[in-house]
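Run YCII-related domain-containing protein through structure prediction, thanks.
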Amino acid sequence: MFILELSFGDEPDRLAARPAHRERLQALHQEGRLVMAGPFADDSGALLIFDVPDAEAFAEIVAADPYYRTPGVTITSQREWSPIVR
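Sure, done. The structure for YCII-related domain-containing protein is below.
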């Protein structure tokens, strides 16, 4: 599994890009590649948990979504995670 943590700025481009990003997330969830995702309560960022086999598959998901390169969206952390309880 892989975790992606984002931080958000105030740029309006972020909100304009969000609907398409959320559609991608729904598709990834239906495919079983996204476990959960959502913004922090204060909307300062978000956390996403992906269930993919390796770092290459994770990198492909991130590269395919322009939201992660949108002004106002910053990837603050991306790392592999080994949960012990699921």
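The CA atoms of residues 4 and 78 lie 4 Å apart.
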